[in-house]
Amino acid sequence: MNKITRRDFINGSLVIAGSSLLPYGCASNAIVDKMAPANYPPTLTGLRGSHQGSNTHAHAKSWNNKTDWGSVTQLTEEYDLIVVGGGISGLSAAYFYQQKHGKDKKILILDNHDDFGGHARRNEHTIDGDTRLTFGGSQTIQGPQSYSDVSKRLLHDLGIDLKRFETAYDFDFYQKHKLKAVTYFNKKKFAEDKIVQHPYTHYPYFIEGIEHSKLSNEEAANQAPLSPKGREQLLRVLNGGLHVIDVPKNELAEYIATHSYFDYLKNTLGVDDPAVLEMARNSCADNHGAGTDVLSIEEAIDVGVIGFPPLALNEFMSENDLNSPEEKHSNLYGEEQYIHHFPDGNATIARMLVKKMIPKIGKGENAEEIVLSKFNYEQLDKESNIVRLRLNSTVINVKHDGDPLDADTVFVSYINDDKAFRVKSKSVVMACYNMMIPHIVPELPAEQAAAMKRLVKIPLLYTSVGLKNWQAIKDIKMGIAMCPGNMHQVVYMDFPVSMGGYQYSKSPDAPCIIQMVSCPFGGTVGEPPVEQFKQGRYKMLSLTFEDYEQEIREHLTGMLPNDLFDFNRDVESITVNRWAHGYAHGGVALFDPELSGLAIKGRKPFGRITIANIDSATSSYANVAIDQAWRAVTELS
Predict the structure, then answer these.
(1) E strands within 111-268?
(2) What pLDDT is recorded for position 319?
(3) What's the rounded Cα separation, in Å, for the pair 124 and 131?
(4) In whole angstroms, what is the distance from residue 533 CA to residue 486 CA?
(5) Burial of 504 (0-12, 13-18, 19+ CB in 10 A)
(6) Dist. CA 356–CA 513, nearest whole Å
(7) Does residue 193 sit in helix, strand or coil?
(8) Of 38, 211, 372, 560, which residue is least crowded by CB atoms under 10 Å?
């Protein structure tokens, strides 16, 4: 069999000639629509997310201050609202506007990608005729009981039954197959390829049903492929905790909030072994986005790094009466179970929002019914639609027709297929990357623009890999693997969720999808997070698909037993979801703690323009995107 790059990919795009003729579904999901349009982005593999070309015009505008876009076509279309950004926040804003002002209000949604949903991206892998679903970014409705009334009402309107997840999620899956949280040490970093049945960090326990390791700290340290000195220091970290910090008890809360986790490792515990520090630095992965070298001790505890179970913070705060039961610190052991996963993650929320506003897009009347629905993307931008969604359209200028305080029209200019267009609307919601808004809306007050330019985002890499079977994964008992020496810091079996006629992969003989996760950051320990994100983003975007494939090949071949796994034989497809601007960065205690305040300054209404998206609240949860959309719409008079 040829390499994946030859079989499925040309420069990061699926060769789809004739693909719409292929059957979708099998016995487990036979109700999948048999035909899909040739332009069906969820099935595209290779380099996705911030796919090649998606940011070209935005970068020309922000990096080079490009103003000459050639002749501009003035469209005769007129709208009540234009939304810039087709992620959950932008789609929610369009939906809320119709709810508030009437379903006859004409709306245009513009997005620079070739698919809607923003980070809530659907990935479909067809493996031996079996369609496997997964997410390419936003994965879960997390903690829905704590959602605002606005977010809860929207989920209800979209036909999302939260209780359904209690039966859709198979709590027994991991125990049934004896799949655990493990650590993979690779040969390049640690001198040998080795699996240890211990995660060292508490990150893996966000997966419901994963068992805690039965290895003692001593056994876990001794099994790590480290030098004698490294094993001794690793044990020191595993046995550490708040009890080893030598400050008066009444000063401990302030101390852990203002002192570095890495300083704790180096100065309090005396850790200087590079391999142990490497393990520690990568121990929170996408649970925070940055390396642990920039976190305070309190923040590190909160995300479950090596040496601190997340509950340690709640226990400490409660013991010292520093918070009430209602004010418990957030952590990996939240009171709500982490089970609210659709098979394609939060793409289902985005798809239902589109379905509500463009009914002809596909079959299904609620969130469960659309799980296996193949959307017809040709319906997104029909002239007859009240709501139109225009993909591959990068907005480069938004300007009031006259004085922003008195204008009743806003002109929006965008690039599609390298051609410039201008369209007008009564109002605009900017639901895009907030840092870009000052470049797009040049009239913004200087103070507001300066605040928004500080609102960086964290680069993320969500790679989904289609496997023909998972016998090798079961052999090493891997439900989730921490991988401190690899580009992808975490690898795990996709969540065991079945709903809407879709069945997760229950047998190791069946095709499955594994998720490989990376939060790229710079190589200099202690460098400010913003600088590390820039370095990580640059590296992530500079790599070709062939680079990623080689990394994935080496990773999986080193981790899995060679008698059960052969990359060329067993890997069917790879989708590399690169998000150059992923999670909203709210700053950390030791760096940029003022970012949340800057977000509030940046999101002020400006004439007929209001601001949405997760950036405007520096938080990356789906409910935040929804709530910010509601605020932005209510700010429009």
Answers:
(1) 122-127, 130-135, 180-185, 194-196
(2) 59
(3) 7
(4) 17
(5) buried
(6) 29
(7) coil
(8) 38
Q: Give 483's pLDDT tier (boundaries 50, 70, 90).
A: very high
Alpha-carbon distance values, 342 to 141, 164, 293, 346 (Å): 9, 10, 33, 7
Which amino acid type is present at position 433? Y
Q: Exposed, middle or buried, 163 (CB in 10 Å: 0-12/13-18/19+)?
A: exposed
Q: Which residues contact 189 (CB under 8 A, 6 or more apart)?
A: 275, 278, 484, 485, 486
The SS3 of residue 211 is: strand
Which three-class secondary structure string do you get for 469-485?
Answer: CCHHHHHCCEEEEECCC
Q: How many CB atoms lie within 10 A of CB 274?
A: 12
- C-beta separation of 32 from 131 below 8 A: yes
Residue 477, token pair as written in the block: 């008992």
CA–CA dist 98, 357 (Å, integer): 9
**Position 1 pLDDT exceeds 50:** no
CB-based contacts of 243: which residues, under 8 Å, 6+ apart?
none
Domain ranges across the chain = 69-116+380-454+587-634, 227-327
CA separation, residue 592 to residues 455, 487, 628 (Å): 10, 26, 22
Which value, in Å, is the radius of gyration of the alpha carbons in the chain?
A: 24
What does the alpha-carbon distance between residue 329 and residue 596 come to, in Å, rounded to a whole number? 18
Those residues with Cβ within 8 angstroms of residue 99's Cβ, 6 or more apart along the chain or in another chain: none
39-54: average pLDDT: 92
Measured on CA atoms in the order 495, 497, 500, 503, is the torsion positive or negative?
A: positive
Can you tell me the distance from the alpha carbon of 355 to that of 55, in angstroms, rounded to the nearest whole number? 27
Computed over every residue of the chain, the mean pLDDT equals 89
Q: Is 619 exposed, middle or buried (0-12, 13-18, 19+ CB in 10 A)?
A: middle
Strand (E) or helix (H) holding 493: strand 490-493
Domain 69-116+380-454+587-634: which CATH number of 3.60.20.30, 3.90.25.10, 3.50.50.60, 3.40.50.150: 3.50.50.60
Confidence of residue 303 (pLDDT cuts 50, 70, 90): confident
Confidence tier at 21 by pLDDT (50, 70, 90): very low
Structure tokens, 23: 């059957």
| Residue among 340, 432, 416, 336 at smallest CA distance from 88 | 432
Q: What CA–CA distance (Å, rounded) separates 272 from 156?
A: 52
Compute the distance between CA of residue 602 and CA of residue 328 in angstroms, rounded to an integer.
Answer: 29
